[in-house]
Amino acid sequence: MSSNAPISEGRGRSQIYLSTRGGASGLSFENAVLQGLAPDGGLFLPSEVPIASDWESWKDLSYTELAFQILSLYISTVDIPSEDLKNILNRSYSTFRAKDVTPLVHLKDNLYLLELFHGPSYSFKDCALQFLGNIFEYFLVRKNQGKAGRDRHHLTVVGATSGDTGSAAIYGLRGKKDVSVFILHPKGRISPIQRAQMVTVLDENVHNLEIEGTFDDCQDIVKAIFGHFDTDSSLNIGAVNSINWARILAQIVYYFHSYFQLVKTNSIKIGEKVRFVVPTGNFGNILAGYFAQRMGLPIEKLVVATNENDILDRFWRSGTYEKQPVKGAEAEGGLETDGVKAHTEGCKETLSPAMDILVSSNFERLMFYLAKQFALTNGMDDESSNKKGAQDVASWYQSLKTTGKFGPVPQDLLEIGRRTFESERVSDPQTVQTTKAYYESVGYILDPHSAVGVTAAERSISRAGKDVSHISLSTAHPAKFSSAVGLALEDEKDFDFEAKVLPEEFRGLLQKQERLTTVENSWEHVRELLKKQVEEELKAGSSS
Ligand SMILES: Cc1ncc(COP(=O)(O)O)c(C=O)c1O
Ligand SMILES: N[C@@H](CCOP(=O)(O)O)C(=O)O
């Protein structure tokens, strides 16, 4: 394993972090992870994407050995010594129910499904959040050695969820010392099981806040809190959403792992190109695929699969990134879902609620790279292209904030992106149809997000042909979305949700004791609540 990235300051440049908006550079992995969001509102990125020139030699590694090889390219041994990183990875994936961590299932012909939901909370978020929980703990233990009471570094984690990040983060951080966790979710807009997975966790360091609004409102509140936190505050705010670089990093692993699984079953020869299809909301999962490709994995295309909240699909078609109210549900034969069926302020409630997102955080990271590559093709050197990329991103995101849109971006820049990305928009009726079709033809029960992906994969196959293998990412277990799955399969003769879908862990969950707070849709309000609660926890901690 090696990286052809040049070395500076004794580390690979891929182990030093900068902000997409140019306001921060030279950060260590530890600082990038603990800060979460850059002070200029940008997102952290490695200064360079490492090329793994001998990635093929990783073929027979176990999931955690592979994770170690990949993560070592981005984390210096100063940040985490190798033995410690290996231990953290072993612990993070020991909680998964599948031996392979992320098994690959053959659906039909050249279509494979990558099951990412075998972690504790039954969604793909566990693949990164078990790891993030453990590295937060690792950094805190190191910082707090020999310290007591108020001198200890306390991390206040604030996250927004449309249903899955919340429970994965809570499971990764519950009961951990020196951490308080606050998770914001949109009231009535997540499935009953997703809600119960969060609000029935009664550990004292876990706080669920429900907001009258959409996921984007929750995400905006989180970003505002990061942007406005008083510098003299005792609170060190940490991020669990995919704005945190560690989330993206850990997700790169399963792109390589699933590729090797195809090689090992002789479905492809090593070096052959494949397509990945990714149900997309905040653009974190598919961005990890982009890193895998840049590192050398033979990916022909990454297919973005959106539901009817389709800002990304519209971007790939037009080059303009624009928040826009979607048409009425009735116009497309919209269907009642796990929550409310109406849509407010442009965000429609669909059968795949975790993807009901208007603005995709991580798209900013991709835009940085596209702007940078565009600048390189125009003759700029590496340093100037970094500056130009950051300037473009800062101005696009300023425009998004003030006008609700940016673009159209230059056509040549869009074409650079289109070399790697394609996109598909999948409606609710199409999601239902695919769920039914796969149940009837191969007996597989897809969750609605994975059904969005498989629908997009079928369209991609019709373009790319039968010779290109497709790996479609399955992002959640169907039991989390009983109404949507029931809606698709209720007429099937032998379908029995309780017997065929519901895991033991979910039985009785909806009847358990709950703890949550309803909060006004205002970041100032949430900040005050946070400060008060953390102060109480710190007082209790220093007196115990
Ligand atoms: C089940 C499920 N599928 C897909 C997505 C979209 O993933 P991403 O936000 O990484 O694009 C999410 C959440 O974001 C999710 O919870
Ligand atoms: N779908 C997510 C939304 C948050 O995305 P993240 O990947 O940025 O944490 C969820 O389920 O919460």
UniProtKB/TrEMBL annotation:
Residues 17-93 form the Threonine synthase N-terminal domain. Pathway: Amino-acid biosynthesis; L-threonine biosynthesis; L-threonine from L-aspartate: step 5/5. The modification N6-(pyridoxal phosphate)lysine is found at residue 125. Its cofactor is pyridoxal 5'-phosphate. Residues 102-333 form the Tryptophan synthase beta chain-like PALP domain. It catalyses: O-phospho-L-homoserine + H2O = L-threonine + phosphate. InterPro entries: Thr_synth_N, Thr_synth_N_sf, Thr_synthase-like, Threonine_Synthase, TrpB-like_PALP, TrpB-like_PALP_sf. Keywords: Amino-acid biosynthesis, Lyase, Pyridoxal phosphate, Threonine biosynthesis. One of its GO terms (biological process) is threonine biosynthetic process. Its EC number is 4.2.3.1. SUPFAM superfamilies: Tryptophan synthase beta subunit-like PLP-dependent enzymes. It comes from the Eukaryota. GO terms for molecular function: threonine synthase activity. Belongs to the threonine synthase family. This is Threonine synthase. It comes from Eremomyces bilateralis CBS 781.70.
